[in-house]
Write the structure tokens for this entry.
Amino acid sequence: MPKHVLVNSVDHQNLKVITERSASYGDNVWYSLTFPSEFRSLQAYYPVFFQKDANTGKFHAVALFGFENEENLFLKNNQWDASYIPLTIARQPFSIGIHTVQEEGEEKKQRMLNIDMDNPRVNNESGEALFLPHGGNSPYLDMMADMLEVIHHGMLDSEKFINQLIELELLESFTLDVTLNDGSQYQMLGFYTINEDKLNELNGPELEELQRQGYLQAIYMAIASQANVRNLMNRKNALLGQ
């Protein structure tokens, strides 16, 4: 069970975070959440698709790392074998917490940095320090705080982006069938992609609105990223020695 607490220099002066990447640190996930402003960085390495949350009915963009649960084909020798790590992965073990603070006699909600004390990366012996020896945030902690802000605003923007896709009927479900060199097959269900036929049918004002919001580029980046399914297949074949 995660144990999220507010980061502070009193209790966490000696705390460190291991930044290696491996299954033992929880990196063996086959996809992660992402958002439109990240698509440009992702599209060189990962396929970007969309998923519908069965509980809420809401859609989310995801970057794919493998073909089955707990498979991350980018993990190699305690490193992540790509130049860009999706931010929702890179931010571990930190998260944003909403805390109540007093400002001029009034209670206000404020976003603050939390850390999961039960995360296997968190320790007192090795890794990146959260605080400098004589006080103050370390560059690493400041970087994590900035990263969480990017994720926060990215997820808010993602909701607007996906609402636009739904309104324009640009999302369509599909089944991804994968056959590897050894004959093994994977059928991936529950994913959605951009309907390119409907995209091509959009009128001028609709395209202009997508362009104005920066979403047209994100759409084309998501479409281009799907060529990386072949990259995943090559990684899987190499893993199987095929």
About this structure: The chain has a mean pLDDT of 93. The radius of gyration is 20 Å. The first strand starts at residue 4 and ends at 6. DSSP finds seven helices and 13 strands in the chain.
